[in-house]
Design goal:
Structural class: alpha/beta
Strand order of the largest sheet: 2-3-1-4-5
CATH superfamily: P-loop containing nucleotide triphosphate hydrolases
CATH architecture: 3-Layer(aba) Sandwich
Strand content: 15-25%
Number of domains: 1
Order of helices and strands: EHEHHEHEHHEH
Largest sheet: 5 strands, parallel
Shape: globular
CATH topology: Rossmann fold
Radius of gyration: 15 Å
Number of helices: 7
CATH class: Alpha Beta
Mean pLDDT: 92
Length: about 170
């Protein structure tokens, strides 16, 4: 039975890097990246609450459909509201929530230094100072109440995080 892993955490916590490290070891997984997904669903995003709700629900639906067709999926998305991740848990049989816990200051440093962003908007923490809606800064980020796994993203290398996720799947 296929698995769906939602890698959640603040922007800059390492979601895409961990997803890439995991897929390198497990090439059968498809990655749904919110930053790329959003460009199709809302090409001129406003990041309003209503728009975020629509985009995240669409992403959960896409993951559910891919899983139903026998594909393993990684959701690479902040998913700042717990309700969206719980929706995925309710709808997808083998769903796993992996939380990359990382302080905002570290996320901001990483975001400022990254070269490749998989379509993520640049300078978001700087924009947050101007009122831009950024989870964990100007928009609440609801930490998972009971993630299947929490990883200290400040101290854990992406390759080690990928191994930890593999162990989680093997145990389940």
């Amino acid at each position: 039975m296929p698995s769906v892993i939602w890698i959640t955490g603040l922007p800059g916590s390492g979601k895409s890097t961990v997803a890439d490290a995991f897929r390198k070891r497990n090439p059968g997984f498809h990655i749904l990246r919110m930053d790329e997904f959003r460009k199709v669903v809302t090409p001129e995003p406003t990041f309003s609450d209503t728009e975020r709700d629509t985009v995240y629900r669409a992403m959960v639906y896409a993951a559910m459909e891919l899983s139903g067709l026998g594909h393993d999926v990684i959701i690479d998305a902040t998913g700042n509201r717990r309700a969206w991740r719980e929706l995925a848990r309710r709808l997808i049989p083998r769903f796993y929530e992996v939380y990359l816990k990382c302080p905002v200051r570290v996320c901001e440093e990483r975001e400022r230094a990254r070269k490749e962003s998989h379509g993520a908007p640049r300078g978001i923490y700087e924009k947050a100072r101007g009122g831009w809606p950024v989870p964990g800064v100007t928009v609440p980020y609801e930490e998972p109440a009971h993630p299947d796994m929490a990883i200290d993203a400040e101290k854990t290398a992406p390759e080690e995080a990928a191994l930890q996720i593999e162990r989680l799947l093997a145990e389940k």
